[in-house]
Every structure is written in structure tokens, then in C-alpha cells.
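Why does residue order matter? Because the sequence determines the fold. Keep that principle in mind as you read this record.
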Amino acid sequence: MPESSTLAVFMAATLALLLVPGPAVLYIIARGIDQGRGAGLASAAGIAAGSLFHVAAAALGLSAILASSAVAFSLVKYLGAAYLVYLGIRTLLTRPDPTATIDRRPRTLRELFGQGVIVQVLNPKIALFFLAFLPQFVDPARGSITTQTLVLGGLLMAMGLCTDSLYAVISGGAGDWLKRQPAFASAQRYVAGVVFIGLGVTTALTGARSK
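Structure:
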């Protein structure tokens, strides 16, 4: 199991990332605006369920890497930190597309849940993010890599469900207003970029000092 201090840092980093609206949150907000809070909550639940697939894949993959080589595991951690920095730089440089839309045909809650699962599972960027983010808080000396990854991934998923559900609940008039504000989109981009870069640099430096 991860140390309590590691869990605290992980939760703080996760909360910072989750509070910055990303594509999944904007998707949930759009659904909530079009079909109400129930639709937003169903979409949020589907996104969370789809995240379980990536958590399991990351746990199995990281365990296999460590079993083959401790050096390879360290390399994955540093590559993950570099990827987080890359995400931050790309986020800062990429302007939001105001013309981006989703399929807004009315759907049942079951269909919305299923669509959320599919959207999350089939997103390769999510898989890369999990493989980049979770290893930064995994310590092979603390026991099973699989257990640590599942615990951290499950915590991330649970926190994500809470914040996504909050966005779903308030995605009426407030969500519609926010989506139409250029300042909101710009602020979202800058905050997200700084958080990603800061997280990548911090974890890389922490790993270097621990050596």
C-alpha cells in the first residue's frame, strides 16, 4: 500500500487536475445542458466506469514492466513525467475549438451511460495519461505494484466521479454560460497547462533526489 504522505500528495495532485475542466467534463456539461442533470450524471458514471478499464490495464502493464526490469520501471516513470510536461505545453499552445460539438440526439440514461463508457475506454490519450500519472506515486519497495496501482487508480476514479457529478448537477444555465465565455476557455487552458507541467517536473525531480 502507498504511504499516507504519498496518498495525500496524490489526492492533492488529482484534485488539481480534476478541478480543471477537460474534454470529459465538457462532454458531461454538454449532456447535462441538453437533457438535464440525470443525463449529466449518467454520462459521468459512464466515464468513471470506463476509467476502470484503464486502471486495470495500467496495473497489469506496470507490474509486467517491473517484473522484467526495475530499471525499465524507472524509465517508465521518467517517460511518464516527460509526457505530463508535454501535455502541459501542448495544452498551453492549443486554442480551444468553439465549433466542436457532440451528438446531441436525445438518449436514454442507459444509452448515455454506455456511451460514456465507450468514449472513455476507446480514448488512447486516457490510457497514456494513466500510464504516465500513476507510476509517479508507486513505490516498488512498498509492496505489490498491482495493488498500489489499483488503489491509486480507484481513488482517482472515485474523486473523478465526485467532481464530474458536481459539474453534471450545475450544468444547467451556469454550464451553458461558462461554455460561451472565451475567458473561461483561456483560463482553463492556462491552468491545466501549468498543472501538468508542474506535476511532471516535480515528480521527475523527486525521483532524481530519491536515487
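The first helix runs from residue 4 to 18.
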